Amino acid sequence: MDVRVAIIGAGPSAFYGAAALLGWKDHAVKVDMFDRLAAPFGLVRYGVAPDHPKIKSVTNLYDKTAADPRFRYFGCVDFGKDVKLAELRDLYDMIFFATGAQSDRNLGIPGEDLAGSMSATEFVAWYNGHPDYVNLNPNLNIEGVVVVGVGNVAMDVARILAKSPEELATTDIADHALEALKKSRVKDIYVLGRRGPAQAKFTNPEIKEFGHLAIADPLVRAPELELDPASAAECEKDRLMKQNVEILRSYIERGSGSKQRRVHFRFLVSPVEITGSGRVEQVKIERNKLVDGNAVGSGEFETVGAGMVLRSVGYKGVPLPDVPFDSKKAIISNAGGRVTDAVGAVQAGLYVAGWAKRGPTGVIGTNKKDAEETVALMLQDVGKSKAGGSGDIATLLSQRGVKFIDWQAWKKIDAAEVNNGKAQNRPRVKLVGIHEMRAVL
Predict the structure, then answer these.
(1) Where does 47-151 have alpha helices with state H?
(2) Stretch 119-136: mean pLDDT
(3) Mean per-residue pLDDT for 277-297?
(4) What confidence category does residue 316 fall into, taking pLDDT thresholds of 50, 70 and 90?
């Protein structure tokens, strides 16, 4: 049986889903993938830190999927604007949403809207060359930065701020960010965790990297590494958690730090107010105590001088036009991957995978199993929904004047970026704007 599938999104979940679909043996499958941006790969391109090239090598697998003649790519196509859900339903038997969690959670404290206060997501997108954030222009003519959160994204932004221009110069960091970071006056980076070191979400390699930076030292306060009995017991059972704490303790033994930059890892503290005259100048933080594993304010406060606050306290999904959305969970409403309406009724032919399905948990590889589970449901449902029309999306988009980027065009852009990088001993020099990309075509 012939099955036509539209995939909305072009990140890891989208490509893992495409690979699973193209692996069907009993059905002739055709897969069309759509993304609002010209470049594919989602968070692999725009979220993974530029100094972590090994993680980005997963795109080699995605390239193999895209090389299948049954696969087509449509970049620069905005779902809900360039093409509506009803129109896709008319052309495809099944629609697979893999749009991730595109927004971030707020701190909910006074002063959060001051200039210089932003999400780590925005800062990451800026230095990774996301076209929507080219003009973010973060002020780096400051000495102090507060990073709120202790997950891997928080580690990424703290590390990028702490690294020397020479350490960044051989990465694929966006040129505009590299030039700005070369002029950075940042000296102190404060990473705030509301709970203790045992509850930190960063991984061993992420925290260990701070011990090997050229111009920055990691600093930790011994009292903040003391574990309550419950955390100590948990640590003994969890090897990775125990190693995190041991790495942090090793930083105490290194002393106060003599390098020009310092990364202060603070635990059991929460920001309660951001103050400044028109822009961020200080952050008031409260010491916490752990009560049944939860952080509870102690009423003890201190103030940290900073010109920038980067919050990294979680992502959340955003609604898509005409697609059922669970605003409480901030995901597309679904039952195991089948999209459902407000009362839980399955919407035939609509599916979801990745962060848009389960929320922002796991690493890139987690999305493979997740996507495959959704595709298994799709296989069960073959024949339950059929496209009403027989047209082709390429024709429809062309008639509307949508200048989409296909896979062949993307590979030319990709080759140009890699070629430009060779002269500078870099993996690639990213083309950021769509006009730059179209110029090489």
Answers:
(1) 53-56, 59-66, 85-91, 120-127
(2) 96
(3) 95
(4) confident
Look over the chain and give the mean of its residue pLDDT values, rounded to a whole number.
Answer: 95
Edge to edge, what strands does the sheet with 94-97 contain?
71-74, 28-34, 2-8, 94-97, 346-352, 338-340, 334-335
> How many other C-beta atoms are found inside a 10 Å radius of the C-beta of residue 302?
11
DSSP structure class, residue 228 = P
Q: For residue 41, is it left (φ>0), alpha (ψ between -120 and 50) or beta?
A: left
**For 215-237, what is the mean pLDDT?**
94
Q: Which of 311, 307, 277, 262 is closest to 142 using CA atoms?
A: 307
Query: Is the per-residue pLDDT at 254 higher than 90?
Result: no
Instruction: Report the distance separating Cα 80 and Cα 149, nearest Å.
Output: 33
Region 261-277: what's the mean pLDDT? 97
Other Cβ atoms within 10 Å of 126 Cβ, number:
22
Best CA proximity match to 47, nearest among 360, 356, 337, 358: 360
| Confidence at residue 10, expressed as pLDDT on a 0 to 100 scale | 98
AA identity, residue 235: C
Given the candidates 3.40.1190.10, 3.40.50.2000, 3.30.1360.30, 3.50.50.60, the CATH classification of the domain at 106-311 is 3.50.50.60
Cα separation of 13 and 28, whole Å?
Answer: 21
Checking DSSP bridges between strand 28-34 and strand 2-8, what pairing results, if any?
parallel
DSSP conformation letters of 307-345: SEEEE-S-EE----TTS-EETTTTEE-EETTEEE-TTS-
Q: Please give the model's pTM, rounded to 2 decimal places.
A: 0.95
Nearest to 99 by CA among 127, 79, 83, 81: 79
What per-residue confidence (pLDDT) applies to 125?
Answer: 97
Contacts of 155 (CB under 8 A, 6+ apart): 191, 202, 206, 207, 209, 210
- pLDDT, one tens digit per residue, over 188-211 is 999 999 999 999 999 999 999 999
Domain ranges of the chain: 2-102+316-405, 106-311
Pick the CATH number of 2-102+316-405 from 3.40.50.1010, 3.40.50.720, 2.30.42.10, 2.40.33.20: 3.40.50.720
Which residue matches tokens 């604007």?
81
**Per-residue model confidence (pLDDT) at position 130:** 97
Rounded distance, CA 309 to CA 144, Å? 9
